[in-house]
Every structure is written in structure tokens, then in C-alpha cells.
Amino acid sequence: MTSFKYEAIEGSGSPVTGVIEASDRRAALQLLGQRGLFPSILEIASAPANGSASPAQALEPARRSEMRFGTGIKRKEITAFTREMAALLGAGIPIPQALDGLGEEEENPALREMLLNIAESVRKGTAISAAMDEHPKVFNKLYVSMVRVGEEAGVLQKVMSDLAELLEHEDEVRSEVSAAIAYPAFVFGFGIFTVVILLTVVLPKLFGMLQDMLDVLPLPTLILLNTSAFLHRYWLVLLVAVVGIVFGLRWFFNRPDGAELWDKWKLRLPLVGPVFSTAALSRFARTLGTLVKSGVSLLPALKIVENTIGNLVLAKMIAHVAEETRGGDSLAAPLRKLGIFPKNVIQMINVGEESGKLDEMLLKVADIEERHMRAKTKTLVSLLAPALILIVGALVGFMVIALLLPIFKMSRAIQ
Most Cβ neighbours (<10 Å): which of 89, 283, 301, 324? Predict the structure, then answer.
């Protein structure tokens, strides 16, 4: 335990000083908040008796165990910050002190500096939403808008808690999808790597011996021989061409017209298109439901969703929905015209509007669409993994046959 000296303000407005023992600074802030004290100064009074590291160094085990490369801020770190911030605000700790406590114990230098800067801005009178808006690469429009609504309505702790649930849910879905495609991607990548190594390094030496022994090689062997010779001779040119194509496509798809074309292709791709579509629709419903639940009006919420849905084609559709809703239509009517939501989903949204529980219905729709997305992903992966194994196996099998045919031909000649 560490002793902390503090200067704080009681609920009655009277100043108070004292010493409190806690495992770290964050725990000390929580204890003071539980006592109804609002600290302005909190500093270490004595080092831990057992000679262990100071609270600035004694970070949480989960954070300490994570190895870090570079100084970027990860999405999961923002999710953890949001959850911790909601807990500290729930304990009655003022915003600047909560930001200071989280910032000083943060292991990531970039995130620590950002949190301390936000705390300083808030201490000078800037709203926390405005301070977060100065870091658009970390806090997107959805995040900032929800925080602003929480500030204006006086329910920032509840909004931060809703945000944490939204981010945690999205992280969970991303992890499930990444884990599902990891095995097929590994199988395909390793198979292609093996085939390339065989064609460029191993087979040229074997084919040299076979050409010396036989005047006429079988057709499969000739095909493999020519392919291997081409790759062996022009591998550097091919590598440069592949890299150029990759960077060229990235440049094109980063342009507005290219990004819109790619988003349109993603929705129309066979097999994976429905997965992208369902994922985008579930994100739309969950984000809109969370915004409405937090007190954001429908039209501003639709505008926020339009900017954060991650698909330009669907964003244009949402903009059209917002325009029709502005004209007095309900949300269900323009969504029905789009034809992208199932009928039962439209009915649920309509019931939610009529009963005044639109946020609950949207979140239920999100749950339904996410279950469909997960089922489609599992089905796709269950088909994709055997298909990739079959493709790699066919390539390797063709190479084996191409190698064995001349050997069989030589054995017949010897007999």
C-alpha cells in the first residue's frame, strides 16, 4: 500500500487535507470519491513499505504484461479507457482528476500524453468533448458526439458506460471474425509460400538433371519447367510488379470514387458480399440505437451514423433516409423503400417508433443481424478452409505428378 497526501473539497464546499492509503493513484481517487471528496491535489506521501515500484510504475498486470512496439494508440486501449473513465465518473471523481489518474498510470506514452493534455484543457474550462475533438484519429465523430450529449444532459457517466459497451461489443465481434479467418488465411499463405519456394529454388535443380537424362519431357513436366524457369528468372520483376499493383490499388481505393467503387464491390461479391452487408446493417442498428438511447435526436443520430458506418454506398442510403425523416416520415418507411432490411426488421423498428422504444428495438435488430453475420461467417469459413486446402493440394499434386512422370519414363527405358 502507498500513502497519498491530498487536498480536496467536501460536498459542502469546505476544503480538507489528509492522507489516504491505497494500492495506486486510481484506487486513491476512487476511495476519495466514495467519501464524497473532490481532490484537487493528490501526491505520494511515502513509497511502498515493501520496496516495490511507485504507483506511477506499478501498473496493472494486464497492461504491464502487454508488449508494445511503436507509440500508436490501439483501439482496445480506447475501449479500456472508456470503461475506466465511466467507473471513475460513477464514483463521483471530477473529470480532470479522473483524466489525470488514468493518464499518469498509462503505459503507452502517446495515450498518456493525450489524456494529460485533455485533462489540462478541461481544467482550463474546455468541454471534454471539445478537447477530445482535437484528436480525431483517436476519438471519431460518434465518440465525440455521444460525449457532447452526455455533457449537455448531465449524464456523462451513463453515456461513457454506453460507449464502453458499444466499443467492447465491436471489439468482440472483430476478434471473432479475425479468429475465424485466421486458419484459412494461414493455410493459403503457407501453401502459396511453399509452392513459390519449390518453383524458384528446388525444382530448377531437379529439372536440370531431368533434361540431361531425357530428350522429350512429358507435357505436365514441361509446363512446370517453363513456369519454374520464368519465376526463377523474373522473380524480382514480378515482385516489383506485385508491390506496384498493391500500392496502386491502395492509392485508387483511398480516393473518394475508388472507395465508393470498392464499397459497392464488397456488397456484391459472391459468398462474402452478404457477410459485409449484414455486418454493416448490424453496425448501423447498434450505433443508431446507442445514440438514441444516450439522448441524441434521430436526425443528428442518423448524420453521425452516416459518417461512421464505414461504407460509402450505405452512407448515401442513410443520408437519403435522413432527408425523408426530416420531411416528417417515420424511420421505418424510408428504410422499407431501400429494400436492404428484412421485413421483420422493418416491423420491429416500426413497433419501436410507435411504442416509444426505438432504441431498444434497434439494439435488438443489431443482435439479430449480428447473429446472422456470425452464422454466415462460420458457414463461409467452413467452406473456405477445405476449398483453400483443395487448391493448395491440387497445385502440390500437379507438381508431384510432373516430377514423377519423367522418372517413370526413365525407369521404363532402363527396363
Answer: 301
**Per-residue pLDDT tens over the stretch 240-293:** 999 999 999 999 988 888 888 888 888 888 877 888 888 888 888 888 888 888
Domain 1-58 CATH (choose: 3.30.1490, 3.10.20, 2.60.40, 3.40.50): 3.10.20
The highest-level CATH class for domain 67-139 is mainly alpha
Instruction: Please state the domain extents for the chain.
Output: 1-58, 67-139, 154-415
Locate 272 and state its grid cell: 462474402
Q: Going by CATH, does the domain composed of 154-415 fall within 1.20.81.30?
A: yes
Q: Do domains 67-139 and 154-415 have the same CATH topology?
A: yes
- Segment 115-159, tens digit of pLDDT: 999 988 888 888 888 899 888 888 887 788 778 878 877 778 888
pLDDT at 341 over 60: yes
